[in-house]
Structure formats: structure tokens, C-alpha cells
UniProtKB/TrEMBL annotation:
Coiled-coil region(s): none
Protein's UniProt name: Lipopolysaccharide biosynthesis protein
Mode of membrane association: Multi-pass membrane protein
Residues annotated as transmembrane: 20-39, 51-76, 96-117, 129-146, 189-212, 233-252, 258-281, 323-344, 356-377, 384-402, 408-430, 442-464, 470-492
The keyword Cell membrane appears for this protein: yes
Keywords: Cell membrane, Membrane, Transmembrane, Transmembrane helix
Location within or outside the cell: Cell membrane
Length: 514
């Protein structure tokens, strides 16, 4: 039964997009400022330890709640327009309670075992650091999951308020105790700030979620429970959960843990800083962030009977938007990467440039992977995701096998191979489910040509040498790299006329010309 009193998915999506655009601009500023201040405020050894802890956090916060993310990603968008507000409220409440309970169990175990964990991890990991990490796992894990629930419900306004409050408070705390980067901050003090602000964020997020659930239930026409069966939930969420955990255990976060263990805090600091910069690009690019906005739209479109061909076309458009944003960034790094990295790290992490090149290259592959995963969620191909992840372990295995001769670059090559293998296998499973996915190869070639033409032209004109002359010259070189690359893209036109028209419909002004 359709809820006649609720706004249409298109109307909600458009409103959500406006909240998304405003919130993410602010989030980008907060995130980048925090990253740049943190690398200046922590010692290199402490920064290396923090990168390792952050990698462990990403693994544990997902592993702690089996199936929770899969259900939130796939079934909340399906229930939102279905009219069953009571059922939606019930699922959200149960899912959130399950998430909090499992995180508390995991964090409590880690808190109790902190002395043993600290001794096993090494001298830099004190008992207090491990216990602060356990508290952070509970509070930040809860707040992040509620943000995911809001995104799945097309409630970008609530998601942005929650995230901005939490991350803005962290930035303010770092500014106060670190004197805007002038004073060194201990790892324990920084983790204490994160725990306090994450706890505040978790409380605010929970309040916003309760308010939304009550409002949705009151407005719903359907007063019966409209909820997927447990068998359906398990059939999709169980294999998806194992594939997500296995991916993290064989992905970039595990590579960071291996680098830390094998090469020490000094190397992981540069490697981790490069990874954090690329993650910031990935996290705050509007094109990548559209995935959180697009996912519920794809699932709603699938539920309403849209053809798989339409979904594949939309997926190709999302990939192109990602690459359109990544192309000028890549060009800027090729032209002025070294002076730029020296500027943003305060001269501490210039040895991380070569790693940054690798992670930006990896972003291109991950853009395609993200969209393929989106299609997998839409088609409920849970078993395919698990098989693809199992096969992709081969890439990391090859990297470990080559470590003795190639060192850290064997691990990087294995990571890239793992991503490619996953995408190929998952595309096969999508085809078996009735969806023929293909990459927009011609458009990708046009982007590559734009990058190559811009880099060669600006190098020939001496812009790369200009970038080393000072801050003003660096900014001028970066601006030239971005503008010339976008100009070449506009000339080569990687987007079709229909795609340009679709994108311009979502923009306040019809300025999309690529």
C-alpha cells in the first residue's frame, strides 16, 4: 500500500540533495582542517600509531555487528516509500538496538583485555590508549551507523547535522589543545577528545533518530507492519557481512596494519598520511558522496520496476562523475605534488608523495568497485559479493608472496589486484542475475587523454617549476592544472547529451558542459 500523504521519492531526493550539498561542503572543510592539524599536532611516531588504531577501528566497527550495515543499506530504502511507517520504525529501532548492543560487547571485551592487548601490540600502545580506543569504538561506531541509517532513509539533513556536530567538536578540541598546530598533542589527549565528542555525537544522533521514527509512524497511512521476512534478511545480510569483513581484512586497512608491523611507525606515518589524504578525497568529493544519496534511489527504482539497463546506465554516469572530479586532482598532483605535500604536512611527510600517487590511482579503481557494489546491493546479490571477495584474496596473497623482493610495493600491487579481481567476479554475478554491467570505456579513455594532455602541456610550459617558487606560485600552478584539465574534458565530452541533461536537472543552473 502506498502512503499517499508522504512526499514522492523524487521530491524527497531533491530535498535530500540540497541538504547533502550544503552539509558536505562544510564537512569537507572540517575534515581537511582536522587532517592537516592532526599531522602537525601529533609526533610522527604517535601519528603512525594513530593510523594503525584507525585501521583497526574500521575493521572492528564493521565486524562487531554482523549484518547490520547490509540491512541498513538494502532494506531501509525499500521500506521508506512503502507506506509502512510502523514497520520502518520497528526495523530502525531493532537494528539500532542491535548495533549498540554488539558494539558494547566488543568494546567491553577490549576494555577488559586492554593490558594484554597493549603488551601484545608493543610499547607505543599503553593500556590507557587501548581503553580509550575501546570507548571510541562504542561511541563513534554508534554515531556512524545512525548516519548510515539517515542516508538510507534519504534524511541527509539529519545525517549532516549529526556528522558536522561530531566532527566540528573534534576540530574545535584539537584547535584548543594544540594551539592551531603550534603545540604537540599526546596521543592519549587526542583520543580523549575523540571519545568525548563521539559520545556527544552518539547522543545527538540517537535523539534525531527517535524523533524521525516517531514522526514517520504518525504520518504513515499503513498501520500494519511492512517488513521483509527474516529469511530474506538473512539470505542477503549474512553473505554480505562476511564479504565486507573479508574485504577489510584483505584491503587497505589490513595493509596499513601489515606495514606498521613489518616496517614500524616511521614508515606507516608517511604511508598512512598518503592513505588519509586519498581517503579524504574519496570521502568528500561530491561525486563519491553521491553514492550515499544514490543508493536508496537505486533500490527504490528497482522496487518500482525500473529496468536493469536503466540502472546500468545510471551507474555509468556515477562512475563518470567520480572520474571527472578525480581527473583534475590527479593532474594537480602530477604538476605540483611535492610542494603541495610539503605545504599540507608542514614539511613532515614529503616522503609520502610516491604513496599518494598510488592511492590516487587506486581511487579510480575503487570508484568502479563502489558502483558495482551499489548494483550488487540493488539486485540483492549477497552470495556473489562473498564469492568475489574470497577470490580477490588472491591479490593480497600475491602481494605477500612478493614482499621479500619488492617490499611495500608488492603489498600495494596486491591491493590493486584484489580490487580488480573483485570487480570482474562481481560483474559476472550481476550478469547471471540479469544485469549486464559494463564500464564506459570510451569515456574513461577521454578522461585519461585529458590528464595526459594537461600534464604534458603544463610541464612543457614550465608550470611544474613555477609551483616550487612559493605559496602564490603553487596556488597558481594548481589552479592552472585544474582548469586546463577541465577544459580538455569539456572539449572531449566524456558525458552523453542525455547524461548532461539529467545532471543539469539536479543543478540550480545548467552549467554542466562536460
Amino acid at each position: 500500500m502506498t502512503n499517499e500523504t508522504s512526499p514522492s521519492t523524487a521530491a524527497v531526493a531533491k530535498k535530500s540533495l540540497s541538504h547533502f550539498a550544503i552539509g558536505k561542503v562544510l564537512a569537507a572543510l572540517v575534515g581537511i582542517a582536522t587532517l592537516l592539524l592532526l599531522v602537525r599536532s601529533l609526533s610522527r611516531d604517535h601519528y603512525g600509531v594513530y593510523i594503525t588504531l584507525f585501521a583497526a577501528f574500521e575493521i572492528l566497527q564493521l565486524a562487531a555487528s554482523p549484518g547490520a550495515y547490509a540491512v541498513a543499506f538494502r532494506y531501509l530504502p525499500e521500506l521508506r516509500p512503502a507506506g509502512g511507517g510502523v514497520g520502518l520504525k520497528a526495523l530502525v529501532q531493532r537494528l539500532t538496538a542491535y548495533r549498540i548492543a554488539t558494539l558494547m560487547v566488543c568494546a567491553a571485551g577490549l576494555f577488559i583485555a586492554a593490558p594484554a592487548v597493549a603488551e601484545l601490540a608493543g610499547g607505543a600502545y599503553t593500556t590507557s590508549v587501548v581503553r580509550l580506543f575501546a570507548l571510541l569504538l562504542c561511541f563513534e561506531g554508534t554515531a556512524r551507523f545512525i548516519d548510515v541509517e539517515f542516508e538510507s532513509l534519504l534524511q541527509q539533513g539529519r545525517a549532516q547535522v549529526s556528522a558536522l556536530l561530531r566532527n566540528g567538536a573534534k576540530l574545535l578540541g584539537l584547535l584548543l589543545v594544540g594551539g592551531a598546530g603550534r603545540h604537540e598533542v599526546t596521543l592519549e589527549l587526542w583520543l580523549s577528545i575523540e571519545v568525548a565528542t563521539s559520545a556527544l555525537g552518539a547522543v545527538v544522533s540517537s535523539g534525531l533518530l527517535l524523533h524521525y521514527g516517531a514522526k514517520r509512524a504518525r504520518e504513515s497511512v499503513a498501520q500494519t507492519l511492512h517488513m521483509p521476512t527474516m529469511a530474506r534478511l538473512l539470505r542477503f545480510s549474512v553473505p554480505t557481512y562476511f564479504s565486507q569483513v573479508l574485504f577489510l581484512l584483505t584491503g587497505a586497512e589490513m595493509v596499513k596494519l601489515l606495514v606498521s608491523r613489518l616496517l614500524g611507525a616511521q614508515v606507516i606515518a608517511a604511508f598512512g598520511f598518503a592513505s588519509a589524504l586519498s581517503a579524504t578525497v574519496q570521502k568528500y568529493l561530491p561525486s563519491y558522496l553521491l553514492i550515499g544519496w544514490v543508493r536508496p534511489l537505486f533500490i527504490s527504482a528497482r522496487a518500482s520496476g525500473r529496468s536493469t539497463a536503466d540502472l546500468v546506465q545510471l551507474a555509468g554516469t556515477v562512475i563518470k562523475i567520480n572520474v571527472l572530479m578525480l581527473a583534475p586532482i590527479t593532474t594537480a598532483l602530477l604538476i605540483a605534488g611535492e610542494p603541495l605535500l610539503a605545504l599540507i604536512s608542514g614539511g613532515r611527510m614529503t616522503d609520502g608523495l610516491v604513496y599518494l600517487y598510488f592511492f590516487v590511482f587506486l581511487l579510480f579503481i575503487q570508484s568502479a568497485r563502489t558502483v558495482i557494489a551499489l548494483l550488487g546491493f540493488t539486485m540483492e546479490v549477497g552470495s556473489g559479493s562473498l564469492v568475489a571477495t574470497l577470490v580477490s584474496v588472491l591479490g593480497i596473497g600475491l602481494g605477500l608472496a612478493g614482499y621479500s623482493s619488492l617490499g611495500i610495493w608488492a603489498l600495494c600491487g596486491g591491493l590493486a589486484a584484489s580490487e580488480l579481481i573483485w570487480g570482474v567476479v562481481m560483474a559476472v554475478y550481476l550478469r547471471a542475475s540479469g544485469m549486464s554491467f559494463r564500464l564506459p570505456w570510451l569515456s574513461l579513455a577521454k578522461f585519461a587523454a585529458s590528464i595526459a594532455l594537461t600534464a604534458s602541456t603544463l610541464h612543457a610550459l614550465g608550470v611544474a617549476d613555477l609551483a616550487r617558487g612559493g605559496l602564490a606560485q603553487l596556488l597558481l600552478a594548481l589552479a592552472a592544472a585544474v582548469m586546463v584539465c577541465l577544459l580538455f574534458c569539456a572539449v572531449l565530452r566524456p558525458f552523453t547529451g542525455d547524461e548532461r541533461a539529467l545532471i543539469n536537472k539536479l543543478l540550480p543552473l545548467k552549467v554542466f558542459v562536460w
